Structure formats: structure tokens, C-alpha cells
Amino acid sequence: xxxxxxxxxxxxxxxxxxxxxxxxxxxxxxxxxxxxxxxxxxxxxxxxxxxxxxxxxxxxxxxxxxxxxxxxxxxxxxxxxxxxxxxxxxxxxxxxxxxxxxxxxxxxxxxxxxxxxxxxxxxxxxxxxxxxxxxxxxxxxxxxxxxxxxxxxxxxxxxxxxxxxxxxxxxxxxxxxxxxxxxxxxxxxxxxxxxxxxxxxxxxxxxxxxxxxxxxxxxxxxxxxxxxxxxxxxxxxxxxxxxxxxxxxxxxxxxxxxxxxxxxxxxxxxxxxxxxxxxxxxxxxxxxxx
Length: 290
Ligand SMILES: [Zn+2]
Description:
CATH topology of the largest domain: Thrombin, subunit H
Mean pLDDT: 95
CATH architecture of the largest domain: Beta Barrel
Bound molecules: zinc ion
């Protein structure tokens, strides 16, 4: 193979978003995935709503999902982007609103943890109340129909989906690491607000138990890296290319409500945003690896 041809092939395989020559074309990417997922719904999805919601009650995979060990060799942030982008997927769930005849898309993120076609994402993604079909798109444009929920846990907001890899060969994966402490530098990869392949950075703020009927004291990882709607299921990476967890939810902290001397209520302003992430530990548990 000539050097020029090799270079051309390498450039062609660059994930959208990587550099000025490979900018993400959000409209084209999202349209492609939406079209494929709608076609899946119309042709009789391999996983319809009732089957999917039933499978979301599986708290542990029936057969253990073999996962690669955590990596110890440090890599650059640029290399982290490449690894996250190659293992990451954009997920589309299509549903009918009941008011019109059209299919509507709902967007989220995820990443492959097993090359045969196992994707990690959130329980709240897997347990979408009305979606009739779900599909995932890889950085190089492969469409992966979601065919099964292997396991899911609502309290910890984790799920493992089986996808049909088709004829495209094994998927690039990220290893999971569940022993990173607070203070670890982290990167967050995902698709916030219809923006494909965004990387942000921060630190692992702390681990905390979250209360409430839904969380029931489950441990979550809080980070300072930004993410937004659509990032759900996107991997949180350390500097070795391991996934420490994934984006799950945010909660804003506002200034206290105050009333000024003229009796008007002062507007509350945003002070900071908490970023609550599902943990790799919870993923390992539902995979049957712990
Ligand atoms: Zn509608």
C-alpha cells in the first residue's frame, strides 16, 4: 500500500469532530441515525417497547459480560478523544407523541464495552417510556440496531444494551475502572444538545449517595466537567482511556430566593451545576463482573 493511500485511509477513518479537516456535520449525522431508526420501527423493531421495558427489570446480565481490564498506561487528551470517539455512540429512540402521525427522535449517548456489541448507557435511556425502536450510530457511520436490554438498574441509572453489529466487525471498546478517587482528572465525551462528539474536562469532585424514591441511596460520582441533555450515557474517562462512569443527570444550584425592600422577588441566578454520573462499579455489577 502506498503511503499516500494509507494516509488517505487514516484520514477517512478520523471521527467527526477531530480536526479542521474532519468537522462534525451534526445535521447529516443526526438525520442519518433518525432515518435508520425510523426505518427500524416501521419494519417491526427487533426490540419493541413492551419487550424492552420488560427486559429493563433484569438487574444482572443472565450471562456474565466479559470486560477488558482497566488500562494503566497514560495517554494524551488527544488520544483520549480518539478512543472515546471510536467507542462512543449516538443513540436515537423513536416514538409517537399520540398527537400526530410522525415519529419523533430522542437523543442520548453511550459507549461500547464489549466488541461483540454491548453498549453501556443509562437506565433512563433504556427505559424510555414510549420508544418503539432504538438504534446507535458509531463515529464511522455504522448503524447498530438495539436488540436486547441485557441488564439495567434504575437506582444507579445504568444499563447494558445488546446491539446487532451487522457485518462491520468488532466494535472499539473502553475498559471500565471502578477505583478512581476524588481529585482524578477526568474527560467527558458525549453528544450534548445535538452536538456530535464533544469532549470537556474537569476533575472527579466526589462520590455521594443520592436519596429519593428513584435513587434509594445509590452511589453516584460527581464531576466538574460540563455536559448537557443528549450526553446521557457518555463516558467519563481518566487519563488512561478507562471509563470511570457515564453522564447521568445535572442539578443546578441557585442563589437563595430573596425579596428586596420594595417587595419584589429577586431573580435567582445560577451558582453552579452539579454533574451526577453513574459509576463504572454499577456497570460492572450489572454485567456480572463483580
Ligand atoms: Zn407528534
